[in-house]
Amino acid sequence: MFEWKQCYETGISFIDDHHKRLFELAYETTNNEKNNRDIFNELLDFIKFNFAIEEDYMSEVEYAEFKGHRDHHNIFIKRLCYLKAEEFDNEEDYEKLYWEKAFHFIYSWLHNHMVSEDSKYSNIEDTI
Ligand SMILES: [Fe+2]
């Protein structure tokens, strides 16, 4: 999980660099034995920062699907908040199940989003 793949490349170097860093951070986070909340929150902050960078870029180049793309980002953040608010039977379950669910969700969302959405603006500069 969380290994960088060629299919994630947008061809826009500063965005690719951020995406690579995001995967490194996620990899470090999942391989941290404690999965502690500070590291997890650092990962979430970086994801939000990456979304902001992407959105600024899309706005600057007047990308036609900008609003829809931004909605995808916002829905992801909301779903993570809902996941965080889910009830677990006890603290032990929370510690085990929450992280498992959260990382699985983050990985599958990022993978799908980068392959199907981020790839769409990869050739935007060729069309403007
Ligand atoms: Fe995106």
UniProtKB/TrEMBL annotation:
Pfam families reported for this sequence: Hemerythrin
Domain of life: Bacteria
GO molecular function, one term: metal ion binding
Natural source organism: Clostridium manihotivorum
SUPFAM superfamilies hit by this protein: Hemerythrin-like (SSF47188)
Similarity section: Belongs to the hemerythrin family.
Name this polypeptide is given: Hemerythrin-like domain-containing protein
Keyword Nuclease: no
Protein keywords: Iron, Metal-binding
